[in-house]
Fold:
Amino acid sequence: MELKWIEDFVCLANIGSFWKASEERHVSQPALSRRIKALEDWLGVMLVDRSTYPVTLTPFGRQFLPYAQDILRTAKGIREEFRLLAGAGRDEVRIAALHTLSLHLLPELIEQLLQTHPRAKTVVIPSMQGVEYHFDALANGIVHLLITYGGQAIAENVAQSDSFDECLVGMDELLPVASAPLVRRLGLADLNAVSAVPFLAYSSFSFTEKLVAPVARALGDRLRVVCESGLSETVAALARRGLGVAWLPRSTIEADLARGELVTVGGDDLRVPLAVKAYRSRTSRSPVVEAMWSLLASRADARH
Structure:
């Protein structure tokens, strides 16, 4: 059970509309519906009567509502108590980032931040959870900044994007690659011309899987999943060992490509463009948060 399911349920109970509750919770209506259903599955009972408008609670839902409200009050009190104990303050910036970006983008930014704000403390949260979790954390003040890949998967999960500032940090692309020995052995110059190619996939909960899925589906049964992982670093390690084809960010494999250890397979139609974007809640305005945001924005300016 996840706390955001409880928050969704209480919000829906108060508003009585999936559409309006999804706006309040900064997610799409289908995403909110899935999370309410997940809570019902976890409890083993129906909480919401979906046949009425406004939406009403079932007897189980009405019985569960005060428990849900108490859970949220308790959780909020615990979080605030421990934040005070930890001394979080004006010099701290908490950043949620995709694991790949936390490894390849954030170290340089943190170094630059410390040059101008030597007392700053950066807390990096490289999460493998879905994109919905990232925006929940941003909206609820758990993190100040979110750095992620932009795309349709973002648009589908951020119903009220005007609650956040958005900044384009840079561009990247996911390339279909394989080890040079595997390319020679299977003749993988063109994925469209071969079948039963071993495929190193991303886990269904990962953000990258949402980006790769349309291209992989278009190839149909030409791809045969032999392994999946939520981390691109794991997928890259498997690709280097010649275990299959993988879609990897160009920024993380440029050295492999230059050495010829990894080789791109297929044409431009199999590449997935990536926009690296940063988001912040419009209520976050500490000096350190502002400084990190300026560093992120300056990367975009430098590209023009």
Remarks:
- Residues 12 and 20 are 8 Å apart (CA to CA).
- The mean pLDDT is 85.
- Residues 89-171+275-302 form a domain with the D-Maltodextrin-Binding Protein; domain 2 fold (CATH 3.40.190.10).
- The longest helix spans residues 59-86.
